[in-house]
Amino acid sequence: MNGRAQYDLVTEWVLTAPVECIFEALEAPDTWPLWWPYVASVVRVARGDAQGIGAVWRYTWSGRLPYRLTFDMTTTAARRPELLEGCASGDLCGIGRWRLARERDASRVRYEWRVGTGKRWRSIVAPLFAPVFEWNHDQVMAAGGKGLARHLGVTLRAYNRLSRHEDRRCTTC
Description:
It is a single chain. Mean pLDDT is 90; it is low at 165-173. Helix content is 26%, strand content 43%. The protein has a single domain (6-162), classed as START domain (Alpha-D-Glucose-1,6-Bisphosphate, Chain A, domain 4, 2-Layer Sandwich), CATH 3.30.530.20. The protein has three helices and eight strands; from the N terminus they run E-H-H-E-E-E-E-E-E-H-E.
């Protein structure tokens, strides 16, 4: 990613909700600020096709650290109710992918976030502060899982930060 610091982060939530309900919440990012504490704003920049492919959303995120990140996310894949994928550009550049699967009486939601820093200062300090940046990401994702559970009126059974995942390729970006 052009000499930028790179992060390969994988998070899983287990929620007692049908995947279809979770997918509906995730495919409407303009509602995320209502239930995800660290989402400062989401603005639609461009509409996509009937499946949402090509839609561009501008996200501004906060976190536990004293800075904000703003990036555009272009939807590159959507398979209801199991997959949403997009390419980020801006303060972060890379790929985000939501995978949803039903498991017995719950649903597993996996978010794969493979991004590089879009700002030079973040790349310079990354070797020293990468663990802190990753901790901040974990805090944001934990709050998202709890917020989504509250929003849907269900239980967040588990939140896990996983090690690097096996599928690092994105054929759509």
